[in-house]
């Protein structure tokens, strides 16, 4: 049993009393102390007297730190786990954390767990800190856009084996991640994705460029192209015009890819020449004999080609040079099985090919005309999509950028099962998300009050993730990127609105703005004071005017009255910091009850002062 000594003075930290077989008694103290009485023994318990606190600016790339909790016991060991929207961030277990782009638009917090020998660990949470989405700008609210303010640049001496260097673009928003793709004559170079590239012999005579794609959470990716560098031919020439002695050649003979069965698509790998502007033609061959009409970069063999050898004749022509031809290695098409079902025509796929739209497949034409049962399976990058077994398929976010195809399988009792696949289509980015109901703001719109934005409802599933930007009179409020906002005094009399941005994987972001909400004006106070309450006849009196409002510096016009008679209107300027001493008109001998009326301004209400009495003494004769 654990006990804590009371009343034994500050010298004693803790006492642990244990009993039972095999358990030793232990005590920790800074000085010897008398044995506690029964009344002095209480259960030992670890408590967080003060919770931990997050510190930091709360932006991507800005370090956050933790103020540890204050525990009820001395010698507690702390362990840490940072959280994004309440879920643990893998590997984030130190007392500091630097938000990354993935944290933008989410709430960060941290869980601190205290451990003490012999007691159960105790966990406590910090406050949550929203990490804003990138953005800014003024005027009419608009969706965030990423722009390359300075384009990327290639530098270096263009030549085979000469290092080229890529200087990245300067983006309009912070925190952008770049991905690079080097290209030769506009064709991506396999594996060339770094910040530098050394041209090979195969690049001679071509133009080298690089495509830099900037990515930022909540914003559409943007790709920008560098300048082009011409890599000269070994003979010193460059470009598409052949030099004397040049010969046209394939850099590598293409190969055939695909499942070598009837009805499946067989494709050529990329065709690359050593010179520019080459005209390329393709002729597919069966057992070396041209197949009429088969001149594309891919081909689907019919049942009549079962058991034959399929290859492709590639021919390149360039003015002034001999024609060059090459034949690929042959690919054997599985021989026909008399009882097999084969596809005379493969299924086809049609549709907008965008995430959120439907693809529709057609039936294949089987070699067996009757009694064949056809089933379907949609494929994503050649892998079956679970549950997608109809002739139609709704493209989802996971399909974006993937190759989608339809495989048909024909079965019949007594026959060998046959399959046939459509040509794949590339799933494109879906249309921008749209709000079914407009976002709205709730709360009492007055300085100091909490306002909340409801993001509205958005078409489709799953529910999007949302980003927020609060505006005052059309100008973005710095750092106001959460679903809640506490109105500042400076926003009194202004209109608040929120631009809600919705994000869903595979779709272009959508945005919708709330209707503006007017923030109430704050009450003002007008006060008068007389530096001298009695003045001689013929002298002009001085009057101190003070305007005030909670949380604001007040400026505006103030009218001074002598009783009901208007004396003069004065202006308290912003530079006066709410107080101005003015000179009154000369007044007749006697007592004058002075008051002042402030007419209010865009942020504050009107107010009137209490009266002060100025006595003008009659001149002695």
TrEMBL record:
GO terms for biological process: carbohydrate metabolic process. The keyword Protein transport does not apply. Keywords: Signal. It comes from the Bacteria. The keyword Transmembrane does not apply. Residues 1-26 form the signal peptide. Residues 536-616 form the Bacterial Ig-like domain. Pfam families: Big_3_5. InterPro entries: Big_3_5, Ig-like_fold. This is Ig-like domain (Group 3). It comes from Nocardioides psychrotolerans.
């Amino acid at each position: 049993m654990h006990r804590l000594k009371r009343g034994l003075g500050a010298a004693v930290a803790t006492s642990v009393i244990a009993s039972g077989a095999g358990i030793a008694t232990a005590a920790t103290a800074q000085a010897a102390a008398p044995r506690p009485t029964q009344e002095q023994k209480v259960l030992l318990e670890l408590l967080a007297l003060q919770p931990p606190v997050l510190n930091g600016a709360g932006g991507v790339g800005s370090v956050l730190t933790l103020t540890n909790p204050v525990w009820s016991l001395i010698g507690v060991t702390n362990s840490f786990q940072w959280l994004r929207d309440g879920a643990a961030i893998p590997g984030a277990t130190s007392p500091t954390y630097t938000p990354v782009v993935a944290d933008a638009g989410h709430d960060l917090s941290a869980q601190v767990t205290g451990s003490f020998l012999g007691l159960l660990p105790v966990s406590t949470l910090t406050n949550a800190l929203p990490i804003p989405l990138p953005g800014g700008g003024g005027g009419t609210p608009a969706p965030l856009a990423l722009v390359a303010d300075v384009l990327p640049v290639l530098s270096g001496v263009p030549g085979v084996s000469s290092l080229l260097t890529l200087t990245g673009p300067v983006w309009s928003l912070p925190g952008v991640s770049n991905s690079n793709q080097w290209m030769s004559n506009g064709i991506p170079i396999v594996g060339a994705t770094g910040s530098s590239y050394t041209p090979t012999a195969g690049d001679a005579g071509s133009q080298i460029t690089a495509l830099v794609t900037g990515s930022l959470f909540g914003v559409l990716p943007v790709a920008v192209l560098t300048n082009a560098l011409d890599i000269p031919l070994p003979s010193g020439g460059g470009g598409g015009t052949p030099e004397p002695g040049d010969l046209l050649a394939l850099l590598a003979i293409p190969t055939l890819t695909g499942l070598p069965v009837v009805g499946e698509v067989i494709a050529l790998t990329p065709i690359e020449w050593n010179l520019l502007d080459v005209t390329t033609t393709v002729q597919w061959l069966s057992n070396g004999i041209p197949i009429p009409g088969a001149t594309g970069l891919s081909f689907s063999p019919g049942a009549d080609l079962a058991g034959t050898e399929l290859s492709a004749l590639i021919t390149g022509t360039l003015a002034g040079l001999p024609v060059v031809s090459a034949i690929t290695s042959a690919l054997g098409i599985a021989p026909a099985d008399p009882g097999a079902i084969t596809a005379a025509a493969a299924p086809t796929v049609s549709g907008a090919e965008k995430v959120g739209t439907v693809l529709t497949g057609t039936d294949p034409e089987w070699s067996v005309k009757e009694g064949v049962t056809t089933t379907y399976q949609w494929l994503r990058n050649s892998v079956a999509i679970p549950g997608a077994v109809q002739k139609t398929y709704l493209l989802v976010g996971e399909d974006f950028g993937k190759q989608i195809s339809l495989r048909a399988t024909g079965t019949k009792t007594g026959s060998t099962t046959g399959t046939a696949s459509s040509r794949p289509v590339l799933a494109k980015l879906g249309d921008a998300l749209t709000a079914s109901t407009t976002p709205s703001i709730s709360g009492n719109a007055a300085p100091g009050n909490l306002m909340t934005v409801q993001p509205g409802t958005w078409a489709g599933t799953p529910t999007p993730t949302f980003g927020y930007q609060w505006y005052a009179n059309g100008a973005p409020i710095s750092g106001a990127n959460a679903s809640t906002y506490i109105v500042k005094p400076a926003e009194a009399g202004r209109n608040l609105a929120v631009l809600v941005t919705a994000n869903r994987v595979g779709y272009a972001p959508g945005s919708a703005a709330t209707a503006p909400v007017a923030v109430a004006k704050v009450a003002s106070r007008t006060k008068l004071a007389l530096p001298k309450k009695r003045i001689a006849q013929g002298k002009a009196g001085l009057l101190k005017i003070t305007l005030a409002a909670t949380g604001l510096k007040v400026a505006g016009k103030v009218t001074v009255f002598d009783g009901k008679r208007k004396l003069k209107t004065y202006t308290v300027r912003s530079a006066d910091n709410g107080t101005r001493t003015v000179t009154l008109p000369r007044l007749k001998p006697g007592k004058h009850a002075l008051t002042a009326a402030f007419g209010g301004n865009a942020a504050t209400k009107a107010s009137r002062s209490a009266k002060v009495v100025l006595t003008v003494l009659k001149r002695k004769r």
